[in-house]
Structures are given as structure tokens and as C-alpha cells.
Amino acid sequence: MCLAALVLPVSACTQAKGPEQAVTVTQVQSLPSGNHDSDLLHLLPTAGGSIDVVTDCDEETEVCSSAVVSRDAVDDSLQWVVELTPAVHLSSSCPPPTGLYGEYHLGMDFYLSEAFGPAVVSPDGRHIAMVTCPALELDDDGWYVTDQRSGIVVLDAASGRMVRTIEVSGYVLGQVLTNDALVVQTAQDVNPALEGTLTIAPLTDTSAAPTTLPADQWLVGSADGSVLLSPRRAANDCRLDPCGPMAVTRMSTEGTVLETIPGVERVYPGGWVKRFTDPSAAVDLAVEDSTKDREERDRNARAALGREVLDLDSGATVDVTGMDVEPTALPTGPGLLVSQPADDEGDPAATSTPVLWLSAADDGRPHTEGLEAFSR
């Protein structure tokens, strides 16, 4: 697979690209900051600013390209643009396999995940990793074979410089960044139990060859120098369809199991998990709810269960019982915003109230200064 990339500094942002590039800087400049349409993945917070991913496809050639756009966290000015061909692996930008399952089947949990999806940020906010559309091959029956090849590119968040590229074979089930390594999970089907493999590529010594480890559990997140594995994936939103508790294994990039964390409800980018403070009670309620229809599940009992956010690197915890916890963009990189849910009974316009925020750039302590910035 050949991955073409073009880095444009601010001074070159008025120059259009050649005919092989589907996305032009003029299109990028006209895109409103934070615009979340079907061609935009999501805003990625880095230490150098916020990152947009914009994808466009040429109708004649059916070739898609992505523009990776960095904007200043303070004044929103355009800092650099990197154009990637093939495009970043969004659900609408790659040709769908038409083989065993008839359509692309990794699910929206991969495409929408900020912790292990097609575009991720390292906990320290210094690097971005992007999975590009795979090269697909047909077997004799005209079905796509599982030995597809995908490229992954790691960019320096401050400059857009390409730090490292690797190519992997098989289905890409997820990718994460630690502060010093890229980790990509592949398998020969859409389940890691079928020859699941972790490919680890160092970022400190980019000349070092990637290493591999077997992994029959799902790659679901990362911390400073470790990755997180789970028997199942956790959805981003566990309120509409409760996820229930799961055990998450934290493992070093050398393959050493560091700890097992029970009762995890959600994994966040930046090195945090939200977990139940009484995992046994959460398991009992999940088993009880599994026998009921969605409308009959005891959501009040689930909401009342104690929860906390755990910083995996510092060990610090914050009680978030009854609170909303969502990823947020900070000038230093990934963060979390903890809010008091709105009492929207009779007032559909009611909004939640920010209570505290957490930054992956410090020791895990809660912050209450500057909360007014989150209310805008």
C-alpha cells in the first residue's frame, strides 16, 4: 500500500492541491470550526490545538482523501493541514467489503470511538494516529479476502510532521496511542478471538521494527505506557442502552499484565475509566435487567449506583455518582468534563451544569477554576 501525504504550513494555506487531491485547502478554510457533519469525524484535542478530519471523494475516480486540520486552541486560527490518500477510515470514505457479512461490519462503536477508533490522540496530546482505508483484494469467488492491508500514520500534533507509518494485514479492530507507542489490533475476522494480534510500533525510536503480541480480547483504550483490553467493547453512551460492568485488563506494551480493573462502565481517551464503586451490585442489577425489556429495566436503580472516575496513571479517583462525564478538549490535550445533569422536566431547553474538569496533562486532581468556559 502506498500512502501519500502532503503537509501544508500556514503560509501555504491559500494554495490549491493537484488534481489527485480531492480535498483542497480552500474547502478546509471554508469549513466552520467544530462543524460535525457526515464528513467530519470529531474534534480531537491535542497539546498543539484541536484537530478536524475532513473527508471528500472524487465521484469519477471514487478515490477519497482526508484533510487533517489543526486549529489553534485559543484563537481558532489554521495552523497546518495534512492531506492523506487513501482517506482516514471513516464509515463513508472506504469501499465496503461485500464478502462474508455483506457490508462493513465493525460497527459504529469503532467509527465513533474516541478511545480506540480511526483517529486517536496520545494521553499527553503530542501525537495523532489515523487508520487509512484498507486495500481490498478479491478471491476467486469475487468475495473480499480477510488479508486486507491498512496503513496507519502517526503525526506530530504541533507541526503535522509524519512521525511514523506502518502497514498491517487483516481487519483493523482498533488502535490506540500510548505516550511512546502506536498499538494496532488486527484479526482474521471481526472478532479478536480469531488470531487477534497487537502490533506495537515505538515512537521514540521510529527505526525500530514493530513487535507483535497475541490478544484475544478487545483493545479498548490506553494510558501513558499501557493498553486496555476487555472481553467486550463498551459503547460511548451507556445511558440509553446501559452497558453494565466489565473487567478491563491493563497491560504494558511489552505484554506484562499490570492489573485487572473490575466494574468498568466506560473507557475514555487520555487514560481514564469510569467504574462502579460496588462492582458486585452492578453485576447483580445487570443480570436482573437482562431478563427484562428495555422499557422495564430499572434505570433509577442503575443511576443510583455509585461511580467514580479512575486516573490509570496516578491512581487518583473522583466520585461522579449521579453525574455526566464526557470527553472534552483542553488546550493541553484530552480532558474530561463532569457535569450535574439538567432537571429537564417541563423544560426541554435545560442544560447541564459543569461541576469540575480533569486534565490528562497533570496528576489527576479535579479542577474547578474556569468552569464558565464550559458553559458557553
Number of helices, counting only DSSP H or I runs of 4 residues or more: 4
Determine the fraction of residues in helical runs and give it as a percent range: under 10%
Biggest sheet, open or closed, and with what strands and sense? Answer: 7 strands, antiparallel
- The rounded Rg comes to 21 Å
Structural class assignment:
mainly beta
**Large-scale geometry:** globular
Find the CATH topology: Methylamine Dehydrogenase, Chain H
Q: How much beta, percentage-wise? A: 35-45%
Low-confidence stretches: 7-23, 32-41, 98-105
Assembly form of the protein: single chain
The overall pLDDT, averaged over residues, is 80
Overall tally of structural domains = 1
Number of strands: 23
The CATH architecture comes to 7 Propeller
InterPro entries: Quinoprotein_ADH-like_sf (IPR011047)
Region (Disordered): 327-353
What does this structure look like?
The chain is mainly beta and 376 residues long. It has a single domain, classed as Methylamine Dehydrogenase, Chain H (7 Propeller). 7% of the residues lie in helices and 39% in strands. It has four helices and 23 strands. The chain has helices at 25-30, 108-112, 279-289, 299-304; strands spanning 4-9, 44-46, 49-57, 64-71, 78-85, 119-121, 127-131, 149-156, 162-169, 171-177, 181-187, 197-202, 211-214, 218-222, 226-230, 246-252, 257-268, 272-276, 307-311, 317-319, 324-330, 333-340, 353-359. The protein has a seven-stranded antiparallel β-sheet with strand order 14-15-16-17-18-19-20, with helices on one face. Strands 1-5-4-3-2 form a five-stranded antiparallel β-sheet. The chain has a four-stranded antiparallel β-sheet with strand order 6-7-8-9, with no helix packed on it. A hairpin with a 6-residue loop joins strand 4 (64-71) and strand 5. The protein is globular and about 55 Å long. The N and C termini lie far apart (44 Å). Mean pLDDT is 80; it is low at 7-23, 32-41 and 98-105.
